[in-house]
Amino acid sequence: MKDYIEERAVEIAGYIIETKATVRQAAKKFGISKSTVHKDCVERLKVINPGMAVEVRKVLDVNKQERHIRGGLATREKYLHARN
Question: What is the pLDDT of residue 22?
């Protein structure tokens, strides 16, 4: 694996752990695709830094559990703004 990929994976993981960011938010921040963020954090990070991979997995699991709530809130906001 290239050095810049390892550095990127660790940097993204650190960002997600610190800010509890979603994959989508991390992708936007670093200017890469969601699939790249996911691959870096789930697959590549296991090899690079297993401890950090566990921490990122915890954050991603919480985000996945809350996903339906965020979607509902976004829909609610959409229709509240549509009325006004």
Answer: 94
